[in-house]
Amino acid sequence: MKIYTRGGDGGQTRIYADKPLKVEKSDIILNCYGDIDELNSHVGLLVSHCQTEQTLNNNVAQEAKWLQQVQQNLFQLGYAISATSSLTNDDVTALEQRIDVLSELLAPQRHFILPGGHVSAAQAHVCRTVCRRAERTLVAASQQHPVPATTLAYINRLSDYFFILARSLNHASGTSDIQVPSR
Question: What's 17-101+112-174's CATH class?
Answer without folding.
Answer: mainly alpha
